């Protein structure tokens, strides 16, 4: 962190108002699962479609990750194992959050199955320019429909995943050229069932640090959110979303749970609500 | 066609207690600013060498884990699967843990401290179980068999708990011809290097492993090391990446940490 930088105002962090504590949480259900969406990336700043492109977290995004760790620490959350994607913005978010929790030593499994939705030929394009080119209606369809993917990435596109060494071991027919939320769920679900669920069943407390759409996929799987609702469900960045599951891995509705879902966000409820609504936060004196 | 494997060690860089000149062992101190830079530098050397890591191993201690993460990130390989084990931890320093190195020399004499630091089989006095530094107080060691949680270690003890992990976890990857990155500590690296290089019990305690500088081994299909013309005595097989003069100077600096006056 740069010296001389003013610490974030209390209203900006959600810290200091512990609405949920793990001791309360543990009276609901049996298993703990925490979801964490990474914060601001460099291409968020540039307003570019990202998808599988491996951009870094911004300074602010790194701070969001540290803050998320502090929120979990405040709620006395302890963790046994973590999962994340192949993308550095999620991996770095995970590592920064774990460090705040003094849990850097826990086992971490990385998988492309938790990657962000692959954005096809839109990857790298500026959002405003794309809207100008294709029209608002078409772009909204690509962004917010359940099953309509963006155009597949062209063979000569510099952001083609075949050019990325991290995907060299993925069989060609599994490597997506474009994804909708539906097809994202198709590759998240088996991973959850085969790799994550067994850890939960063993009683491990799990953290998943991932992306907007791979987390939407998980929330849909857990809470059976309808297709028309999941597309618009905003999972705020940098706010740990805590789930308690019963023995059958069905979520138990938590006090203070967010709309449409059983899980509850950590942090000052007003701050959380503002983040969900995407409203710019007014720093509050405490 | 024989499968050649590559094994790369990186000893973590300067920690906060290196700066304060305090015996560390299993205490989970952070890297200093300089140490963070050394980790990044190690990764840049990996990248410049064109090394494509398949799997990484590190300890339970954050100074090694952060070195691992920062090096992989600098080499554009942060996605590489990484396994952590307490068995790759630094030697546990017993009752010297938390003590200032130079003060300890003044108190016990340079010779005694040299024995505790650099003997093969004489451990420092045990750490009291009620010490705030005792690992049994930490969540990270709760799952260990209590008899595996040390009160002190000599290098021989460290080797005895490193090598089972080498056999079970690291060797299978090397046998599969993988490029393996091990980001760890002076003594856990000494344990493995001793075996690879065939270094004797009385020479190994004095082998200085420079920090932040990747040490590379090429192994044949039988995991026999292949000699390197770039190896620096007493190593025959391992070569360091980076500037040769810097490497020599760095090894000297570690040796001088207990020089009084």
TrEMBL record, chain A:
E.C. numbers: 5.4.2.11
PROSITE patterns named in the record: PG_MUTASE (PS00175)
Keyword Isomerase listed: yes
Catalytic activity line of the entry: (2R)-2-phosphoglycerate = (2R)-3-phosphoglycerate
Domain of life: Eukaryota
Gene3D superfamilies: Phosphoglycerate mutase-like (3.40.50.1240)
SMART domains (alphabetical): PGAM
Keywords (A to Z) from UniProt: Glycolysis, Isomerase
Pfam family, one: His_Phos_1
Enzyme class: isomerase
Keyword hit for Isomerase: yes
PANTHER family according to UniProt: PHOSPHOGLYCERATE MUTASE (PTHR11931)
Family: Belongs to the phosphoglycerate mutase family. BPG-dependent PGAM subfamily.
Protein name per the record: Phosphoglycerate mutase
Lineage of the organism: Eukaryota, Sar, Alveolata, Dinophyceae, Suessiales
From TrEMBL, chain B:
Family: Belongs to the phosphoglycerate mutase family. BPG-dependent PGAM subfamily.
Gene3D superfamilies the UniProt entry points to: Phosphoglycerate mutase-like
Organism: Durusdinium trenchii
Alphabetically ordered keywords of this record: Glycolysis, Isomerase
Protein name: phosphoglycerate mutase (2,3-diphosphoglycerate-dependent)
Record flagged with keyword Isomerase: yes
Domain of life: Eukaryota
Enzyme type, top EC level: isomerase
InterPro entries: His_Pase_superF_clade-1 (IPR013078), His_PPase_superfam (IPR029033), Phosphogly_mut1 (IPR005952)
PANTHER family with a match to the protein in the record: PHOSPHOGLYCERATE MUTASE
UniProt entry tagged with the keyword Isomerase: yes
Matching Pfam families: His_Phos_1
Entry EC number(s): 5.4.2.11
């Amino acid at each position: 962190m740069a010296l001389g930088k003013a610490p974030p105002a209390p209203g900006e962090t959600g810290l200091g108002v512990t609405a949920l504590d793990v001791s309360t949480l543990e009276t609901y259900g049996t298993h703990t699962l925490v979801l964490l969406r990474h914060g601001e990336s460099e291409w968020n700043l540039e307003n570019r479609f990202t998808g599988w492109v491996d951009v870094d977290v911004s300074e602010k995004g790194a701070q969001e990750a540290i803050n998320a760790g502090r929120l979990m620490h405040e709620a006395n959350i302890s963790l046994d194992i973590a999962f994340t994607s192949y993308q550095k913005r999620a991996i770095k978010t995970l590592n920064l959050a774990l460090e705040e929790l003094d849990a850097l030593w826990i086992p971490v499994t990385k998988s492309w199955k938790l990657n962000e939705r692959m954005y096809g030929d839109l990857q790298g394009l500026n959002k405003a320019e794309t809207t100008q080119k294709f029209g608002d209606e078409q772009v909204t369809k690509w962004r917010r429909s359940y099953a309509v993917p963006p155009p597949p990435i062209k063979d000569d596109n510099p952001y083609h995943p075949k050019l990325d060494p991290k995907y060299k071991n993925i069989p060609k027919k599994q490597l997506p050229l474009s994804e909708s939320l539906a097809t994202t769920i198709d590759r998240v679900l088996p991973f959850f069932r085969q790799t994550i669920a067994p850890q939960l069943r063993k009683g491990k407390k799990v953290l998943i640090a991932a992306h907007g759409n791979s987390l939407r996929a998980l929330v849909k799987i857990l809470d059976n959110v309808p297709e028309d609702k999941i597309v618009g469900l905003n999972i705020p960045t940098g706010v740990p979303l805590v789930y308690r599951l019963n023995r059958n891995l069905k979520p138990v509705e938590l006090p203070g749970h967010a709309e449409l879902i059983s899980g509850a966000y950590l942090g000052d409820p007003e701050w959380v609500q503002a983040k969900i609504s995407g409203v710019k936060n007014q720093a509050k004196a405490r | 066609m024989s499968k050649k494997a590559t094994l790369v060690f990186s000893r973590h860089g300067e920690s906060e207690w290196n700066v304060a000149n305090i015996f560390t062992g299993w205490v989970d101190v952070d890297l200093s600013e300089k140490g963070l830079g050394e980790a990044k530098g190690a990764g840049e050397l990996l990248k410049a060498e064109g090394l494509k890591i398949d799997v990484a191993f590190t300890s339970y201690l954050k100074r090694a884990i952060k070195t691992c993460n920062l090096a992989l990130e600098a080499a554009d390989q942060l996605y590489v699967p990484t396994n952590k084990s307490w068995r790759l931890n630094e030697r546990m320093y017993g009752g010297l843990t938390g003590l200032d190195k130079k003060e300890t020399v003044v108190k016990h004499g340079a010779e005694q401290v040299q024995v505790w630091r650099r003997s093969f089989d004489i451990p420092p006095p045990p750490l009291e179980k009620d010490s705030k530094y005792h690992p049994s107080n930490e969540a990270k060691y709760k799952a260990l068999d209590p008899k595996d949680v040390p009160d002190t270690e000599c290098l021989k003890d460290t080797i005895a708990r490193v090598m089972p992990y080498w056999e079970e976890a690291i060797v299978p990857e090397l046998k599969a011809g993988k490029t393996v990155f091990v980001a760890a500590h002076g003594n856990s690296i000494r344990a493995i290097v001793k075996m690879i290089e065939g270094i004797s019990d009385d020479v190994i305690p004095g082998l200085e492993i420079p920090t932040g500088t990747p040490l590379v081994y090429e192994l044949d299909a039988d995991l026999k090391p292949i000699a390197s013309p770039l190896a620096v005595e007493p190593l025959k097989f391992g070569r360091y990446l980076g500037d040769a003069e810097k490497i020599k100077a760095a090894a000297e600096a570690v040796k001088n940490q207990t020089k009084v006056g």
